[in-house]
Amino acid sequence: MIEPIAEQKMEANKKAVREFYELALNTKDFVAASRYLGPRYVQHNPLVGDGKEGFLAFLAKLKAEYPDNRNEIKRIFADGNYVIIHVHSVRIPGTRGRAIFDLFKLEDGKIVEHWDAIQEIPEKSANSNGMF
Amino acid sequence: MIEPIAEQKMEANKKAVREFYELALNTKDFVAASRYLGPRYVQHNPLVGDGKEGFLAFLAKLKAEYPDNRNEIKRIFADGNYVIIHVHSVRIPGTRGRAIFDLFKLEDGKIVEHWDAIQEIPEKSANSNGMF
Questions:
Q1: Which of residues 90-129 of A touch B (CB under 8 A)?
Q2: Does pTM top 0.90 for this prediction?
Q3: Contact A116, B127 (CB under 8 A)
Q4: Which helix (H) or strand (E) holds B9?
Q5: Does A1 touch chain B (CB under 8 A)?
Q6: Each residue of A110-127: pLDDT tens digit?
Q7: Helices (H), chain A
């Protein structure tokens, strides 16, 4: 069975990821966001360099190229040391944007690893349910 | 706290998604896979039609166009009624393939809703960690 302490930890991990994500992708404040990162930050997004330095460079570029970028967390899940978010990302207001899943691994409440998959939302769909 | 019965349910949901996914994407047996679907199957993948019929048409097309398609589950997570899988999909053997996150909602142990995000694995990466 899942111990109550494990459940509390998963809720705390969700909260940490929410706060980190808001500071990073929306506020675009690397200093504030980086407080949520652990001693290492292993990056699996192929467009972002490894570690905190790679993440800093990514955020600087995002801020310069897409200052109005907004990422909205639609759903959040936790299992063990992992948190998964389902995100609607709009780089330029008024555009359809992209559907994203981000997966974070946490250790001692800090984010240490990140994976994702990003898909442009197409103009037309084979169903009327939307991507969220 | 998470009740033991809730944890058992999440493990059963993971097992159902694993079996469904193998039968659908690898064996490509719609009849066998569809036994894991609930009374409805709400589809959010914009390239697939809604419901069981849309899924049947998708599998038939996959089987015809990519008979050697293989989807490998790299990681699986569960939270409440949801199961998330992180997948490496290779449609044509020897190609880099795609990174996928699939999100499934289950009711009474059956799959009733599906979302995903699919990204081609690029030739070059800004880090050496791979997408998994």
A1: 99-101, 103, 115-119, 121-122, 124-129
A2: yes
A3: no
A4: helix B4-21
A5: yes
A6: 999 999 999 999 999 999
A7: 4-21, 30-34, 51-65
